[in-house]
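Hi R.,

Here's the chain you asked about this morning:
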Amino acid sequence: MPQPSKRALLLTADTQAGRSCETALSQLGMAVDWRRDGSDALLHLQQAEPPCLIVLDIQLPGVSGLEIVQHIRRDVQLAAVPVVILTADVICTHLTGVQVAAELLKPILPDDVIDVIGRLKI
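And here is the predicted structure, written out as C-alpha coordinates:
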Protein backbone atom coordinates (compact mmCIF):
# COMPACT_ATOMS: atom_id res chain seq x y z
CA MET A 1 0.00 0.00 0.00
CA PRO A 2 1.48 3.39 -0.98
CA GLN A 3 2.41 5.88 1.73
CA PRO A 4 0.61 9.25 1.75
CA SER A 5 2.80 11.92 0.18
CA LYS A 6 1.32 14.78 2.21
CA ARG A 7 1.61 15.22 5.96
CA ALA A 8 -0.76 17.25 8.11
CA LEU A 9 -0.09 18.34 11.67
CA LEU A 10 -3.12 18.06 13.94
CA LEU A 11 -2.95 19.91 17.27
CA THR A 12 -5.82 19.28 19.66
CA ALA A 13 -6.41 17.77 23.08
CA ASP A 14 -10.10 17.31 22.19
CA THR A 15 -10.41 13.60 21.40
CA GLN A 16 -13.70 13.89 19.51
CA ALA A 17 -12.50 16.77 17.31
CA GLY A 18 -9.16 15.03 16.81
CA ARG A 19 -10.76 11.78 15.66
CA SER A 20 -13.02 13.62 13.22
CA CYS A 21 -10.08 15.57 11.79
CA GLU A 22 -7.82 12.52 11.64
CA THR A 23 -10.50 10.53 9.79
CA ALA A 24 -11.11 13.33 7.29
CA LEU A 25 -7.43 14.06 6.66
CA SER A 26 -6.74 10.36 6.14
CA GLN A 27 -9.63 10.19 3.66
CA LEU A 28 -7.97 13.09 1.81
CA GLY A 29 -4.81 10.99 1.50
CA MET A 30 -2.76 12.75 4.19
CA ALA A 31 -0.63 11.19 6.88
CA VAL A 32 -1.49 12.78 10.23
CA ASP A 33 0.88 13.71 13.04
CA TRP A 34 -1.38 14.32 16.07
CA ARG A 35 -0.06 16.29 19.04
CA ARG A 36 -2.23 16.96 22.10
CA ASP A 37 -0.13 19.56 23.92
CA GLY A 38 0.99 23.02 22.81
CA SER A 39 4.53 22.67 24.15
CA ASP A 40 4.96 19.33 22.38
CA ALA A 41 3.54 20.89 19.21
CA LEU A 42 6.10 23.70 19.23
CA LEU A 43 8.93 21.21 19.69
CA HIS A 44 7.58 19.10 16.82
CA LEU A 45 7.34 22.16 14.56
CA GLN A 46 10.98 23.01 15.27
CA GLN A 47 12.28 19.49 14.61
CA ALA A 48 10.13 18.02 11.83
CA GLU A 49 9.79 18.81 8.15
CA PRO A 50 7.11 21.45 7.54
CA PRO A 51 3.68 19.87 7.01
CA CYS A 52 1.43 20.74 4.06
CA LEU A 53 -1.33 21.75 6.51
CA ILE A 54 -1.73 22.55 10.20
CA VAL A 55 -5.08 22.01 11.90
CA LEU A 56 -5.05 23.36 15.43
CA ASP A 57 -7.34 23.94 18.35
CA ILE A 58 -7.30 27.34 20.03
CA GLN A 59 -7.60 25.57 23.41
CA LEU A 60 -4.41 23.57 23.97
CA PRO A 61 -2.67 22.70 27.22
CA GLY A 62 0.84 24.07 27.62
CA VAL A 63 0.92 26.72 24.89
CA SER A 64 -2.27 28.15 23.38
CA GLY A 65 -3.21 27.66 19.77
CA LEU A 66 -3.03 31.41 19.20
CA GLU A 67 0.57 31.48 20.42
CA ILE A 68 1.40 28.59 18.10
CA VAL A 69 -0.11 30.43 15.11
CA GLN A 70 2.00 33.48 15.96
CA HIS A 71 5.09 31.25 16.08
CA ILE A 72 4.17 29.71 12.71
CA ARG A 73 3.73 33.11 11.07
CA ARG A 74 7.17 34.27 12.31
CA ASP A 75 8.97 31.12 11.10
CA VAL A 76 10.23 31.47 7.51
CA GLN A 77 9.80 27.73 6.79
CA LEU A 78 6.29 27.57 8.24
CA ALA A 79 4.80 30.97 7.36
CA ALA A 80 3.22 29.79 4.10
CA VAL A 81 1.69 26.63 5.59
CA PRO A 82 -2.12 26.92 5.68
CA VAL A 83 -3.55 26.86 9.20
CA VAL A 84 -7.10 25.76 9.96
CA ILE A 85 -8.36 26.70 13.42
CA LEU A 86 -10.69 24.53 15.51
CA THR A 87 -12.75 26.65 17.88
CA ALA A 88 -15.98 26.78 19.83
CA ASP A 89 -15.96 30.58 19.44
CA VAL A 90 -16.32 31.71 15.82
CA ILE A 91 -15.15 35.27 16.54
CA CYS A 92 -12.02 34.26 18.43
CA THR A 93 -9.50 34.66 15.58
CA HIS A 94 -11.18 37.83 14.32
CA LEU A 95 -10.66 39.49 17.69
CA THR A 96 -7.00 38.51 17.93
CA GLY A 97 -6.04 39.39 14.34
CA VAL A 98 -4.49 35.96 13.72
CA GLN A 99 -4.30 35.07 10.03
CA VAL A 100 -5.64 31.61 9.26
CA ALA A 101 -6.79 29.85 6.10
CA ALA A 102 -10.09 28.70 7.63
CA GLU A 103 -11.99 28.07 10.83
CA LEU A 104 -13.97 25.00 11.86
CA LEU A 105 -16.59 25.46 14.53
CA LYS A 106 -16.95 22.71 17.14
CA PRO A 107 -18.41 20.13 17.21
CA ILE A 108 -16.28 18.96 14.28
CA LEU A 109 -17.61 16.45 11.75
CA PRO A 110 -15.36 14.70 9.20
CA ASP A 111 -17.47 16.00 6.29
CA ASP A 112 -16.94 19.59 7.48
CA VAL A 113 -13.18 19.05 7.55
CA ILE A 114 -13.20 17.51 4.07
CA ASP A 115 -15.25 20.44 2.74
CA VAL A 116 -12.97 23.11 4.24
CA ILE A 117 -9.70 21.41 3.27
CA GLY A 118 -11.05 20.73 -0.22
CA ARG A 119 -11.63 24.46 -0.70
CA LEU A 120 -8.00 25.15 0.25
CA LYS A 121 -6.77 23.00 -2.66
CA ILE A 122 -3.79 21.56 -0.81
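One quick note: The radius of gyration is 13 Å.

Cheers,
M.
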